[in-house]
Write a structure and sequence with these properties.
16 strands, disordered N terminus, 17% helix, three-stranded parallel beta sheet, globular, four-stranded antiparallel beta sheet
Length: 246
C-alpha cells in the first residue's frame, strides 16, 4: 500500500494552514495526496463537534498529564488573530455564552449542557472564513524552542475528534485497528513551525534523530506514531535567520 500523507493542518493539529492545493515539494516519493474538502485549519464549528475535542482531551490525558488545553484563533492566511475588537461566543436559539479571549488569541472551551441541548454554534463577529482555530496543548517547563511529543500527540487526538466527519470513511475505518488516525502507520503528520527552521531534531535522553523539513523549513514531520519515542521526547528547533512566511 502506498504511504498516505495527510496534511496535519487538515486535522487542526499543531499549526496554521498549508496552502490549500500545496503538497510539500520534498514529500516522499510515491506519496499519495489525500484531499478532504480543505487542508486549512477548520473554521468555527457547531458546539457539539467542538465538545468532542474536550472528550478526547480527557480520554487521552496520559499523553500530557501536566498540560492544559486551550484553543488558538488564527486568520484564514495562517497568522495569529488580532484580538482587538474580536468577540467569540457560543450561540444558539436560547443560549448566548461569551468566551473571554486572552491577549494571545486563545480561549478555554467550557462544557455546557444547555448549549449542547440547544445545538449551539461557536461564532465570532468576523466574516465567515476570517477566523480559524486549532488546539493548543502545552506542558509547563518546555523550552520555547521545543515541543513535547506527547503534547503534539494530544493535539492530534483533539483535532481528529472534532474533524472526523471531514476525513474519508475509508481512512477512519482503517484507523480503528491502529487505535486511531493519529497512530496509523501510513499517515504522516507535517507540522508548521513558528519560524522558518534550519533543523528540527527529536531528542530523548542521549538519543537524537533529525526530522524531515518541508516547505523550505517552514514545517517538519513529527513522529507521532513512532512508539520508540516516548511522550517526553522533545522536538527541538534550530531557527533559520529568516522568519517563516505564513
Amino acid at each position: 500500500m502506498k504511504h498516505l500523507t495527510i496534511i496535519a493542518a487538515l486535522l487542526a493539529m499543531a499549526a496554521p494552514a498549508f496552502a490549500q492545493d500545496a503538497m510539500p515539494p520534498d514529500a516522499p516519493a510515491g506519496a499519495e495526496k489525500v484531499e478532504v474538502s480543505s487542508i486549512k485549519d477548520p473554521e468555527l464549528l457547531p458546539y457539539r463537534r467542538m465538545l468532542r475535542g474536550l472528550d478526547a482531551w480527557e480520554q487521552k490525558r496520559a499523553l500530557a498529564p501536566q498540560a492544559d488545553l486551550r484553543f488558538e484563533l488564527w486568520t484564514g492566511d495562517g497568522k495569529p488573530a488580532a484580538t482587538e475588537g474580536l468577540q467569540l461566543r457560543i450561540a444558539g436559539d436560547t443560549v448566548d455564552i461569551a468566551l473571554p479571549l486572552d491577549a494571545d488569541g486563545t480561549f478555554v472551551l467550557p462544557r455546557s449542557q444547555e448549549a449542547f441541548d440547544d445545538r449551539a454554534d461557536l461564532v465570532s463577529n468576523r466574516k465567515k472564513g476570517e477566523i480559524r482555530w486549532r488546539p493548543r496543548v502545552r506542558t509547563p517547563g518546555v523550552p520555547e524552542n521545543a515541543r513535547r511529543l506527547g503534547d503534539l500527540r494530544l493535539e492530534c487526538e483533539v483535532g481528529v475528534a472534532v474533524r472526523k466527519e471531514d476525513i474519508p470513511l475509508l481512512y477512519r475505518a482503517g484507523a480503528a485497528a491502529a487505535g486511531g488516525l493519529c497512530r496509523v502507520p501510513m499517515v504522516a503528520y507535517p507540522y508548521r513551525a513558528p519560524r522558518r527552521l534550519a533543523s528540527a531534531t527529536v531528542v530523548s535522553g542521549a538519543r537524537k534523530a533529525a526530522l524531515p523539513l518541508y516547505l523550505g523549513g517552514a514545517a517538519y514531520m513529527a513522529p507521532l506514531r513512532d512508539k520508540s519515542w516516548d511522550d517526553d521526547a522533545l522536538v527541538v528547533y534550530e531557527f533559520a535567520e529568516t522568519p517563516a512566511t505564513p
